[in-house]
Structures are given as C-alpha cells and as structure tokens.
Q: What sequence folds into this?
C-alpha cells in the first residue's frame, strides 16, 4: 500500500509540474491515478476485514478454552457423583449379601408369634405377598404392587402394605431394622413414557419401587430410622429370565427383617421430620398401558415387560 501511495503522489506531482500536456496524456494519467486509488481502497478494506477475522478467531479460541474448562469441571463433578453412587451401591450390596447370607439365623431370631403373624399375612394375600420364614423376608410381587413400567403403588398394594406395617409396629417386631430392596427382570426399559417418568433404566426402576414401598411403610408409621432402601435392577435374579414365570418372579420388592435392632427412638415420630427428609416416591407414572418394553397404547403381555 505504501507503493500505491507513492505512485499516486508521483502522478499528482507530475500533473502539477508539467505545464502543458496533451489532453490524451492527461486523461491517461488521471485514469491511472483513479485506478491506483481504487486499489488502495480495496486493499485497506481487505486489511480491515482480515483484522476483524483475526479478532473473531481469537474470541473463538478463548471461548473454546473457557468451554473446555467448564466441560472439564462438569466431567470431574460427574465422575465424583458416579464414585459416590458406586460407594453407596457397594455398601448396599454388602449389607444385602450379609443379610441374605444369614439364612436360618434370621428366622430363628424372629419370635414364633411374629413368624406366625407374617405367615398368616402372606396366606391372606397370596396374589401379592410371599413370606420366607427362614430368611425373615417378605416379598411383594411387582406385577401386582405396581402398574407396568410404574413406581406408583396400586391401591390394593397400599392397603396390604398398611396391614404389613401394623405387624411391623407390634412389640414383637418394632425393634428390627428393615431393608427394602427393589429388583427387576433383565428386559431393558425402552418405552419413552416410562423413561420420561424418571425410570431411565432398570436401576432407576428398581430403586424407585423400593423407595415407593419404603414411603408407604413410613406413611403407616414405620419409623424411618428402621428403614434402608436399595435397588439392584436385574443383578440378583431368583429365577431364570428365559421364561415368563421366571421373569415375573424376578420382578419384586423385598423387605428383609434384619436381625439387628435400631438404637434410640423406635416411634414413628422420629426420622423424617421434614418433607425434604422423607422418602418421596417418583412422580406418578403412566397408566396400565405404559409397559416398559412395548409401544405406548399396546396392552398385551410381552416377555419380561410387565413391571
């Protein structure tokens, strides 16, 4: 551009110092000067555009850098959350394994009166409840306790859990700790309506169902300091998932009556003193056609889908 300015200056001087030139030569010089001035303007415009582009690139790089820092922070936070969740799962697995490993010991620590009461309770509700006296385990069948793909306790199950709570609050049982464990079959959660209700996979569904049963126990005055909750998805089947009947057995919520006793207050007034502390079931799920493994609107039975 300096050379362009120099040429324009030379032309201007030439025009000024030459006293007499032909009209044709004057016109040619003026045309050349105008062309050089146009080139200069174009060059200056390109320099300005290049400057703006360079600044935009610098801004983009800065944004990428900041975004990278934010992403790194988010990844770190998620990794910490996963680590914490894994620790909780490991602790729940350990506690569950210890409880299930004490077959014979738990049953012998339940009084004959309590064992008889729970046996009569299960016999009165055979479509919904099973009782294993050797393990001190009460099993709620998910296909009756919940609608398919749902973690909302049905009205019938709510009434039965209320009766179960009365037994747990008797002097023979009100000192025992209770582990509520949710289980599913191995069919994956696929229905968008089920997922949108918060049950993203079998881990979520099993945990949400356990929470829902624990919340019902608490609603019927079972003290919160007696309750623990765990979700095991399809990791602890009690039957083969290769048949409808096997999958139905695997879909369950168990309440283990542990041989350990709680310390301190056992009354229902302790524990969840505020709404934030109380175990809240997930939001209401869709109606009966919300089967986790069939398209919305269908109601026929599919293998492993009736949760």
A:
């Amino acid at each position: 551009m300096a050379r362009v300015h120099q040429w324009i200056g030379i032309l201007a001087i030439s025009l000024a110092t030459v006293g007499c030139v032909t009209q044709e030569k004057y016109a040619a010089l003026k045309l050349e000067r105008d062309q050089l001035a146009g080139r200069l303007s174009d060059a200056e415009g390109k320099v300005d555009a290049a400057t703006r582009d360079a600044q935009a690139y610098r801004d983009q790089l800065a944004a990428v850098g900041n975004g990278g820092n934010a992403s790194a922070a988010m990844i770190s936070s998620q990794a910490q959350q996963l680590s914490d969740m894994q620790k909780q799962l490991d602790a729940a697995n350990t506690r569950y394994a210890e409880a299930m490993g004490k077959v014979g010991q738990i049953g012998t620590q339940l009084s004959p009166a309590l064992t008889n009461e729970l046996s009569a309770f299960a016999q009165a509700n055979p479509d919904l409840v099973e009782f294993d006296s050797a393990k001190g385990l009460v099993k709620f069948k998910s296909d009756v306790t919940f609608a398919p793909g749902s973690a909302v306790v049905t009205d019938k199950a709510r009434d039965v859990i209320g009766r179960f709570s009365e037994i747990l609050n008797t002097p023979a049982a009100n000192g025992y700790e209770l582990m509520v464990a949710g289980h599913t079959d191995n069919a994956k959660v696929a229905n968008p309506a089920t997922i949108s209700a918060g049950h993203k996979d079998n881990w979520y569904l099993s945990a949400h169902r356990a929470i829902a049963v624990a919340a019902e126990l608490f609603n019927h005055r079972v003290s919160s300091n007696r309750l623990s909750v765990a979700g095991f998805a399809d990791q602890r089947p009690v039957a083969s998932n290769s048949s409808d009947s096997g999958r139905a057995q695997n879909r369950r919520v168990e309440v283990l009556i542990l041989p350990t006793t709680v310390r301190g207050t056992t009354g229902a007034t302790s524990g969840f003193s505020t709404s934030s502390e109380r175990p809240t079931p997930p939001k209401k799920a869709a109606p009966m056609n919300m089967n986790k493994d069939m398209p919305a609107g269908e109601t026929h039975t599919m293998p492993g889908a009736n949760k």
Notes: The beta strands are 129-132, 137-141, 176-183, 227-231, 252-261.
